[in-house]
Structures are given as C-alpha cells and as structure tokens.
Amino acid sequence: MSSEEITFLPRIAEEKKKLGNEQYKAKNYQSALKFYSDAISLCPDSSTYYGNRAATYMMMSNYTNALNDARTAVRLDPNFEKAYVRIAKCCVAKGDIIGIEQAIKKIEELDPQSNAVEGEKQTLQQLRQLEQTIQNNYDSKYYRNVVYYLDAAIKLAPACYRYRLLKAECLAFLGRCDEAVDIAISVIKLDSTSADAIYVRGLCFYYTDNLEKGIKHFELALQLDPDHKKAKEMRTKSKTLKDMKEKGNVLFKSGRYREAQTIYTDALKIDELNKEINSKLLYNRALVNSKIGNTRDAIVDCTNVLDINAQYLKALLLRARCHNDIEKYEESVSDYEAALQLQKTPEIKKLLRDAKFALKKSKRKDYYKILGIPRNASDDEIKKAYRKKALVHHPDRHANSSLDERKEQELKFKEVGEAYAILSDPRKKVRYDNDQDIEDQEQPDFDPNQMFRHFFQFSGGPSGASFGFEF
C-alpha cells in the first residue's frame, strides 16, 4: 500500500463513519449499517467502527452480530469500556449469564467507579433468580409455572433461544403443540443446526401421535448433538410406544383380547402427558374390555378418553352401548344424544331411538316378574299365580300391620291386579309381549278389589267361602 493510500483510506473511512453516525441518529439503521461496514472494509483494525456497528446491530435487535462486533472491538482495543458495556447488554438480551458476569467484571477492572452497567447488574440478579425458579419447577414437572416464569425471563432476555425453546418444550408437554411448533420453527429459520429446536419439533410430532416423524427429528437432533440427553430419551420412548401400540393392535385383531389388554395397559404407563396417544390406547383397551365382558371397566376407559377429548365420537358411542348393556338406559340415551350433536347420521339417530325405547321399556312394570311366572306361562299358570299372590298381599291379611306395611302390601296387591288384568286379556297380553304398549304406556283402568272379588266369585273363593274369608 502506498503512503498516499495509507493517509487517504482512513480519511474516507472517517467520512463513512460520519455518514453512518448521521443515519444512526436519524434512526435509519440499515443505512447506518452500510456506512459502518464500508468504514470497516477500509480500516478493518478500527475498534471504533466495530463498536459503532455493534450499536447499530443492537438497535436492529441483531444481538448475535452485535456481540461479535463488540468482541472484535475489545480484541482490537482491550481498554474499550463502551464496547464491554455493549457486550454486557448483548449478553443480557441473549440470556448469557456467564457472559454478563465477565463483561461487568472487566468494566469494573477498567473503571471501579463506573455505573454504566448498573441496570445490567440488576437484570443479572433477576435472571439468576428466575433460572433457579424455572429449574425447580421444571424438575417438579410444574410446566405451567415454568412457562409463566420463562415469559418473565424472555422479557428481560428477548433474544435468548434457550429460554424460548424451553418454553416451547413445556408448551408441548402441556399439549399446546401449535404454539410450541411456531417457536421451534422460528428458531430453526435463524439457526437450522439448533439441536434443541429440532428436538422440540420432534416433541410436537410425538405429542400429536406422529411417532415416525418424531423419531426422525430426535435422530436428527442426535446427529447434530450426539450427547443430547433429551433427544435420546424421547427417541427410546417413541420407539417403545410405537412398538407396543402396534403389538396391541395385532393382538386385538387376532382375537387375543386379554394379551392386548395387558399391552395397552403397559403402554399407558409410558407417558401420561401424551394425551393424544393415550386417548387412543384407552379407547382400544375399552374395546378389549367390552369384548371380554369387563363392561364397567370399558365405561371407565371411555370416560377417561372423553375427559381428554370430548369430541372422541367412537368412545362416546362405545360408552353408550356399554351403558345399555348394563341397563343404564338414561346414561345410554345421554351419550347417544351427545354423539348425535357431533355427527348427525342415520345410524346414530337410529341408535338414539332404540336407546330411548329401551329406557321407556325399562320403566315399564315387569308383570311376569310381579306374578313370579315365566314369559311362556299358560293361562292356567297365570290364574294360579294371581290367586297365590293376591291372597298373599290382600289388605285384609295385613289389617293389623303397621301403616307403612299396609301401604306397601296395598301397592303390591294393586300391582298383582294390574299384572293379571294385562296378562289375562289376550289382546293386551300380545301388545305387552311385543312391546307395543311402550309408546302409549297404557295403564289398566280397574279396581283391584273388584277384580279380586270377581276372580274368586267365578273361580271359587278360598275353601269355597264367599268373599268374607279368613286368612
């Protein structure tokens, strides 16, 4: 380089710096950046130019480049206090506690009376406390609390990828995968080699029941960082869960229900936070339980599925059927009504009609049971049964009993009369046997005492006596 160039280039560089300063003051940071970069290319050994460009990057929230320039500035001039201040500020923004401590220590060595980083000292203390609180809550799996305290930390350190990705991880644990994905992708766009961001992306696939893609992302994270402990754990967990889920399904399809039940139960223990997969495992186990006669357990499993996802139609329909099987008809109707709200199909409408019919039928009196006879009883057996039951429950027989006992026997006497009124009438009996009376719920209009007198008048009273008999 000629002597002319040696004196000429610094002058040009200074002109560039002045133009950069003007643009910086006018808040035209992109233009300022260009002028400072021009100055640096002309005089690459000037700590001032790097310091100015670092300040510009900071105003543009590009703390990574700002930190690089500030560190270059102090390498060129180890006594450049203002550059150390910028290092401290950048480290705060990036959540680098060790970097903040080192910069503050250097500033105090250069000027023990300096108060240039008083704010950063306070922020350093806040970040230390927050990180301890965050770690304690993370270890205790209080992920909502972790997110809350991370939000406070991110306000102090907006460029800290570590905080943002830890928040994304906890959001995934909480089932808020859409939010977690947005954070992970935003970091990957800035740093495609971030193992933590790729791990979080895999976590989101895992928690939305895309185990294959989850495993691929965990493996990619391990390629970038072979010692990534969380990615290792999640890869193992994902593969185990995938294998057990597939094995359970094969056993179910082959009719080996009890073995499938064991596999599904073991799979449910792997990760209680994976609600998406667990809801499917619970539904599959409910199906198995319904197949092997564990109807009440099937209902419990379906209820747990619906606690996770109230829109899980298959679980709602299965629970409705199971409720019907154990004669909980009102619950069955309620479930079918909820299912119809989710999907208005002819099949579900028919199931609801049938459930309502079963409910009405369940509320109808069982006249055969009241008389203590089978449904195929002959007319003679019906008469004999009525004679026996009517004599047992006749009010006169209980005249000396307590008031409550008399009322109870009167009610039974009336029910026996109702039963006989229906089953002794061929037309009414056919309607009853064919469930044709359920919709109108026809009630016999009769006087049980008159029926009793009529019956014994024509069939012969007890011991051939008139109605005023003795018991």
Automatic annotation (TrEMBL):
Protein origin, superkingdom: Eukaryota
Record's protein name: J domain-containing protein
Signal peptide: none
TPR repeat spans: 13-46, 47-80, 195-228
Organism: Glossina palpalis gambiensis
Keywords carried by this UniProt record: Repeat, TPR repeat
PANTHER family: DNAJ HOMOLOG SUBFAMILY C MEMBER 7, DNAJ PROTEIN P58IPK HOMOLOG
Domain J stretches: 366-436
